[in-house]
Amino acid sequence: MPAKGKHRRPKSQRFTRSIAVAGTGGAALALPLMGATGAHAATPTATVSSTQEKAATAQEKATTSAPVSAKKTATKTYAVKAGDSLSKIATDQSVSGGWKKLYSDNRKAVGEDPALIHPGLKLTIGKKAASSGATEPSAKSKSSTGSSKSSKSSESSTKTAAETTTAATDTASSSGYTLPVEGATVGTAYKTAGSMWSSGYHTGVDFVVPTGTTIKSIAAGTVVSAGWGGAYGNQVVIQHADGQYSQYAHMSSLSVSAGQTVTEGQQIGLSGATGNVTGPHLHFEIRTTPDYGSDVDPVAYLRAHGVTVG
After folding, report:
1. Among 90, 126, 129, 259, which residue is least crowded by beta carbons within 10 Å?
2. Going by C-beta distance under 8 Å and a sequence separation of 6 or more, which residues neighbour residue 19?
3. Residue 173 has pLDDT above 80, yes or no
4. Residues 2-50: pLDDT tens digits?
5. Rounded to the nearest 5°, which phi and psi values hold at 169?
6. How far apart are CA 215 and CA 223, in angstroms?
7. What is the distance between the alpha carbons of residues 138 and 222, in angstroms, rounded to a whole number?
């Protein structure tokens, strides 16, 4: 009996130790597996969170910078004041590129002479700022774009020349004379008396037209003067083949310069209200000399050359 007891006790002890070892080994193996699983599970979550945070930050920066870009491309209108010059305006308004950039952007309004601006003229400042943020094209794209622009510019110039020729032909008369403006009504007549004129009477005839109406040379001739004429505002004086001179005053802009040869019906500028006026119109005179005080009846002169004046 004691022998049997001894035989069973060792087996029981070995069995117990075996279980303990197996249990300990299982726990040791299970812990790294669980730890690794937890680590791998946490990694995607952290990556997604980081990506979402970066996207939100980028979106916030884009939203914040948008108004700044819009502000940079904004333009504004400036009304010329007495004593202004393009150089002074460019300096005061901090125009990038100086007066040359200001003149380039407003050449249509200013005319051929950058020194000829008058109070009340509207200038656009920052006109082409929006194009400054454009992506720089590649060398190949630049070449292609340049060719395209050159082609369009040439086409535009050809079209403009053709339109000018057509317009001149349409307004030409058999006598070689035409009205200085189309479809205008006559306002103050020639020789109307009044203390508002230094001569005591109106030295020309007024054609009532809105600002921006095309003003044309009544006949072929040579431009004697084109510029600021004091009370006459912006004016042009042209000498014709018969030795007489035509004067066009109060214009908003000029398209010709002194010494230039013009044809009948050619545009010489746009109507306006510059100088001593109460509203937009064209003051038109015929003179025997280029100077004030040598006026003759402009309506009678036009009619004598086959032009109907309403």
Report:
1. 259
2. none
3. no
4. 555 555 555 545 544 444 444 444 444 444 444 444 444 444 444 545 5
5. -65, -40
6. 14
7. 48
Q: How long, in residues, is the chain? A: 310
pLDDT in tens, 41-89: 444 444 545 556 665 566 555 555 444 444 454 788 888 887 677 778 8
Amino acid at 20: A
**In terms of Cα–Cα distance, which of 306, 279, 290 is closest to 188?**
279
207: left (phi over 0), alpha (psi -120 to 50) or beta: beta
Query: CA 301 to CA 306: how far, in whole Å?
Result: 9
Residue bearing the bigger pLDDT, 208 or 172: 208
pLDDT value at residue 9: 54
Q: How far is CA 235 from the centre of its chain?
A: 26
CATH of domain 76-128: 3.10.350.10
More confident residue, 47 or 189: 189
Cα 160 from Cα 162, distance rounded (Å): 5
CB–CB of 90/105 below 8 Å?
no
* Per-domain boundaries in the chain: 76-128, 185-304
- Residues 204 and 190 sit within 8 Å (Cβ to Cβ): yes
Pick the CATH number of 185-304 from 2.60.40.2310, 2.70.70.10, 2.40.10.270, 1.10.490.10: 2.70.70.10
Q: pLDDT digits over 115-128, tens only?
A: 667 778 888 888 65
Q: How many helices (H) and strands (E) does the chain have?
A: 6, 12
Rounded-to-integer distance, Cα 88 and Cα 100, Å: 12
According to DSSP, residue 201 is labeled B
